[in-house]
Amino acid sequence: MRRRFWLGIAAVTLIGLGSVLAAVLVYQDDRDDFHQMQREEAMRAAHQMEAVAGLSVSQLTSAAAFFQAEDDLSRHEFQTYGRSLISQGALSGAAFIPRVTAAQRQRFERSHGLTILKRSAPLDFRRSGPRADYFPITYVVAEEEQENRKALGYDLGQDPGRAPFLDRARDAGAPVSSTVIPLLIGGRGINVFQPVYRDGAKVETRAQRRAALVGFAAGSFRIGALAAAATEAVTAEDEVQLDVGGETVFGPTDALDGASVPLAIADRTWVLTVDSPGGPGLSLPLALAVMGISLAALLGALILNWGRNERIQELERQASQDSLTGLNNRRRFEEDLAAAMARSRRDGSTGALLMLDIDEFKRVNDSRGHPAGDRLIQEVAGVLRRRARESDTLARLGGDEFAVILPRCSRGEAQLAAEAIAAEIRGHRSEEAGDGVTVSIGIAMFGEDPRTGVATVVSEADTAMYAAKDEGRDAVRVFDPMALRENVSD
User: Fold this and answer.
1) Strand, helix or coil at 13?
2) Which of 29, 84, 109, 388 sits at 20 to 30 Å (Cα–Cα) from 11?
3) How many Å apart are CA 166 and CA 159, to the nearest integer?
4) Mean pLDDT of all residues in the chain?
5) Could you tell me if residue 325 is inside a domain?
6) Three-class SS of residue 252?
């Protein structure tokens, strides 16, 4: 009897020890999974914010190159170019700030109808005194039209919150970000200054850059616009905090116990923190340790934990993948196209976007039913997979419309690739289509003009695709703006 007693005690002890051990293992597993998920969310949010801001900074750099090539930049030219800068990305305002010497001041003020101003108080603008150089805001565009003229003539060279960053950008020959300051167009944010040098001047040394400086292209980023790019990448329940230079500029002022990731905007490093609610639960480990839950309960907890992780992975997959074909969906396609265009700008290469539409697809749906239409879409997706290079990106944009992103590709190579795809689909035998399958393909190039945006490339490829349909379907057309203008004039 005593033996059975001690065996029972031993068994209970073993179960207790096993339960405590299982509780510890489950807690550590939950904690690691939670921290990993939280860090992935933070990295995804930081990447999206950095990509959006980086797109705007690179556009600002392109604007500086355009201004450099123009000997006498007109207000109309700036307004046209400036509106394109704030229509995409995160810029809320853009400005051109020329360098005006003391000898040039009178002619500058007369020709532009501006007075060069200084500010001694937030709302106290008055005529500036003599200086060797002035940096007046000469042209400006902003999201709010009424803000456009408020800062005209204001000499940033006398602004203690901005002048040091003008000097730094001039000497570095690269975009430089200010600290977070009250913006002249309203709200709080940062200014990014990109120096503009005299066209053809040598700018290898600091002295050469100072001598060749003709002004700056400036952009205004509101904190809210930057933060919106990050918050769109996380769930509504997550808390997001932005810090720069040791100051919290967005989100809770108290420190968050979440995952922090650095990101760069121009030359300044920000820190983005994401704190997900809840955290790893303690109730299950405590119950296992105190009550000695049986092996079945432990296995059930593990199964629930695995199910939760699989559900998270499935949700992440659904967010970027088309459920019918397994190709990327429209949201992921737009991100991939923006990334491919950014790479093209960086390495000076060209790429192509192919837009495909199945011809007479509605007839298949109407005559054979939607299941047959779905199977045909899957077959076309399979053909695209077989034809694609490893570096190509495939996407289904919806309905019977597909897209193929071809990086590092010339116009001729893109046309050959499109014709090869069309030929293979034409030769594909499908029970669903009956008398064969054909597609109409439109091609648009990117990288030839670094100022072209994602929406423009998609629109051009779409236009070319419908031109192929209008010419009888089963065709490949490359977007040609000259031909388009001729068609419009006809």
Assistant:
1) helix
2) 29
3) 10
4) 85
5) no
6) coil
Instruction: Report whether pLDDT(131) > 80.
Output: yes
Q: Is 490 a catalytic residue?
A: no
Enter the pTM of the model.
0.54
Confidence of residue 489 (pLDDT cuts 50, 70, 90): very low
Question: What does the pLDDT read at residue 316?
Answer: 63
In the numeric block, the tokens 């990101």 are attached to: 263
Last residue of a domain, one of 271, 302, 320: 320
In a domain, 50, yes or no: yes
Give yes or no: residues 88 and 196 share one domain.
Answer: yes
> What pLDDT, on the 0 to 100 scale, is given for residue 488?
40
| Continuous H helices in 87-148 | 105-112
Find the domain containing 411 and state its range: 330-489
Domain termination site, one of 294, 320, 346: 320
User: Could you say which of 400, 449, 462, 470 is catalytic?
Assistant: 400
The Cα–Cα gap between 118 and 154 comes to 6
Domain count, the chain: 2
> Which among 296, 403, 409 is positioned nearest to 347, based on CA atoms?
409
Q: Which one has a higher pLDDT value, 33 or 327?
A: 327
